[in-house]
Amino acid sequence: MKYLSFIVFVLIALCSCNKETKILNKLEGNWKVDLIRIEDGEGFTFYDSLPTGTFQFGKIPKTCNANCSYNYVNFGGFQINDSLTIVNGSFEFSSVKNRILITSNSDTIDARIIMLTKKAIELEYYDLIKFRLVRFVMSKD
Description:
alpha+beta
């Protein structure tokens, strides 16, 4: 019985590692930001369909760099310019929660992976300072 329990445990561990490896293989590389969706604290949604920037994810070690700028016009007619910069960041991935925690010297982003394929990814995180939900839609470079 102990032997059978050990085999089941090893198989579960291997399957878990295999799932994370597959996701890391998809995540690795350069991603071009195609669209940014911003939902403010009052529930209004804004889009920037012409953002500039990229995200770069490395598998070993788990590194992340990002440089992205975007702008949109709010309901008051004001132009809002914003950016996200991550330099020499690292990340941890949770396959159970489908989340990625990106950490750099200046910031920590706890993003939810909405979609991940070999050619597309959607990440969403809540900006606590500006009270808004930000979604990045990206394609593989």
